[in-house]
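Quick illustration, no need to memorize.
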Amino acid sequence: MDSGWRYRVASVAGVVVLTAVAVALVNNATIQSIATTIPILSRLPTDPPTGPEFTIELLVTIAVVVSVFLPLYKPRPRRILDAIALAQKRVLVAALVLATIGYFDYSYKLPRLTVVLVTPLLLVALPAWFVWIRKRPSSNGERTIVVGDNLRVIDEVASVVNGTLLRYLCPTSVITTIEQTEAIADGGTNPSGLERLGGLSRIEDVLVEYDIDTVVLAFEHADRAEFFGALDACYEYGVNAKVHRDHADSVLTASGGVGTLVDVEIEPWDIQDYILKRAFDIAFASAGLIALSPVIVGIVVAIKLEDGGSILYRQDRTAVFGETFSIYKFRSMIENAEDETGAKISDEDAGGVDPRVTAVGRVLRQTHLDEIPQLWSILRGDMSVVGPRPERPVLDSDIQTGVVDWQKRWFVKPGLTGPAQVNHVTGKEPGEKLRYDIEYVRDQSFSYNMKLVSRQVWSVIIDIIMVHRNH
């Protein structure tokens, strides 16, 4: 892929053509007759439109699907699982939009049978198309760039790279400093004869423009924000990431790796485990929201009756690679509790009493029921059921100044629970919490997740029983 425009044109054209073919196919009278032999579809009328009506139906469907797929036209070449999941979500949204249009405006109404039949076709065809156009010709060999913040490390790494090494990226500030202290003729700004492509802010453009297969990270320290930013770009664009063995850590790299350069385990799960883990997340969160719906109603009423304030409280939390996302909790403190104190770890985490916590909030915290809204974050994919508990960005910054390697928790998706929570370790003990979280990063597996979930559910049940007895 020489440029992003080629991908954009191919993706839009594919959506248009495949949608048109699917609509034409399901409007065939024979196809509809066969479909209505299925009991669940037998009550739907077989009334495929013809002439101008069919043209309107076709154009409306194409317009809706093309519009809904707008976020997928940005080149993200090789994240196969993400491509499939995102495309299928967009198909379902398009089906909902088409059904809504038909409900409110009969002039552009698609027959119900058409919507029902075209949806499964697009659920297969469009994800397959987006996966296929992400495949690159292999005749050019593996294309590699070096990304780092230290020219000495970049030069060391570049000398051991196999394959087609194109150029390198490093901060402009590094080049400026070198130019002020060294002569360019001495090689200070030209590691291994490579040309610099620009600063770290260009990494996403470079990955697409040069169709990069592998990024070799050459950072002097693998716990800085720039390192995680580069790693996040590799994750988003499906590019392999490697590090020099001398600049790696066992938490970051694939086990059993050989050679000087070793793979960074951006996604340490096998595909089967990844799908199983995500399926469990969806099933657990869905079942939890349904089963706890009466409890949710009771909590809403209790919070309102106590002080009439807001039901939910929104917080930003740190996600994979230092990104942030929003979570919601049932409000357990007085309104605007942090206006004077700012963000801080609750005194309850250290076994004390936090005067900001309301009476209802104290019960919610003791029973962990204030965390119920986070099941929605799990459904959205921002969190998993099991993983390092996400901290607030401002608290993360404070902890990093006193706890070495704290950022290594960012290598897996944050979770509703994890080994630290199961062992009753809170943010008041960041060193101990980190030890448990790093253990999870190293040893994570689906069976390990199930053990942690079982222990956490049992712990919550015991806490609820104890609170009931005390009240």
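The chain has a mean pLDDT of 77.
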